[in-house]
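Section 5: illustrative case.
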């Protein structure tokens, strides 16, 4: 299935980088469908803007389980909403997240869904304001790239493919390619620092945030683009 919000058949409303109204429709659709508070996303006083964070991941140690657990608590404390979608192959981890789901899923801001669903994945990426990828190690990483296609700004740990594709909004040396919020440590404080900055941008700098959303949607991480760069490198070597 092609990841493209302009043509995605799973979405209640399609959208693109220049016409983002459909993304708001998708956000409200997911909020209502999951029993989250849809009033949170109404446009008005910027301080009342409430971001929706999604984390779509296998629930294994590589993906930073302790950081996902921390994010669930922190997002709620910051006044945001978060949806975690994933399955745990380890029974102990599955039971732990079942406990978290029982604790949080009756409220208005957290949903932990222990399942795999292609359709729901598409809906969540389209609805998300931020996509969280706190991996301990990640050779490539697809979630951050899919999220960007759908206008979800990445919050990632600086490792592997995540470090190759996401550059921090506050890094003055990479202003021209800045496209997300990056943290380096594996501790909860490092993640808190990144999420708090992301929330500040979303709530207090809505125009800058919308510019970033458009920017990430226009980034081309396809193989067509990558293959073309490889060809350029090969040609430059041949000419030497």
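Designed sequence:
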């Amino acid at each position: 299935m092609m990841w493209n919000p302009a043509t995605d058949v799973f979405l209640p409303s399609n959208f693109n980088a220049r016409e983002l109204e459909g993304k708001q429709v998708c956000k409200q659709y997911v909020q209502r469908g999951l029993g989250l508070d849809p009033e949170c996303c109404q446009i008005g006083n910027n301080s009342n803007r409430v971001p929706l964070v999604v984390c779509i991941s296998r629930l294994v140690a590589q993906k930073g389980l302790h950081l996902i657990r921390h994010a669930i608590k922190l997002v709620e404390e910051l006044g945001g909403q978060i949806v975690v979608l994933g399955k745990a192959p380890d029974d102990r981890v599955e039971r732990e997240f079942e406990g978290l789901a029982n604790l949080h899923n009756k409220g208005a801001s957290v949903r932990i869904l222990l399942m795999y669903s292609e359709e729901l994945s598409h809906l969540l990426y389209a609805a998300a304001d931020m996509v969280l990828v706190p991996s301990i190690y990640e050779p490539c990483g697809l979630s951050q790239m899919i999220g960007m296609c759908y206008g979800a700004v990445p919050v990632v740990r600086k490792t592997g493919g995540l470090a190759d594709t996401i550059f921090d909004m506050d890094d003055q040396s990479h202003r021209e390619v800045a496209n997300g919020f990056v943290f380096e440590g594996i501790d909860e404080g490092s993640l808190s620092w990144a999420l708090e900055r992301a929330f500040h941008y979303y709530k207090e700098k809505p125009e800058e945030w919308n510019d970033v959303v458009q920017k990430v949607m226009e980034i081309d991480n396809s193989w067509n683009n990558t293959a073309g760069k490889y060809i350029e490198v090969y040609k430059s070597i041949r000419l030497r």
